[in-house]
Amino acid sequence: MVDVMEWYPPRAILANDALFSILAADSKKLDRASPYVAPDGYQARSHPDLSERLIDLARGLDYVSTMGYGRFMLAHPNGALFAVVSSNWGLSVRLTFSQIDLPDGEAAPSPIGEARTMIRAWLGEIPPDVATHRLRSIVAESYRQAASEPPASASG
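-> structure tokens emitted (156 positions)
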């Protein structure tokens, strides 16, 4: 895992800029001695169970994992983020609310960006194996969307 500010060259992926602005405004640096500090020095905002669930849902995809502003994130190798642990129950994916077909209450517009949707990491009304299959499909589609993100500029 790498520090998001070291891994991302400045303005490398234009689509990440708005997300980083939102996350930075909602985050705070902590003293490293605090038990609530994430590896990147920000207040931890990602429960380990959700981070592990996201890794499981992204199985088979070629991604980079990192911490950014206290949140666990997955990015396409091109640098575009496609999934972020964004609450104590959900994951934000790079899909609009209308692109996701889940039962009522299992998805909502994400608080971390208009082009993102927050999905529940575990779906309550669907059998677990079916839920995992559906969520993996959503994460894979989010990954495909991230794959098409162009760099902001050739100079970075």
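Confidence is low (pLDDT under 50) at residues 1-11.
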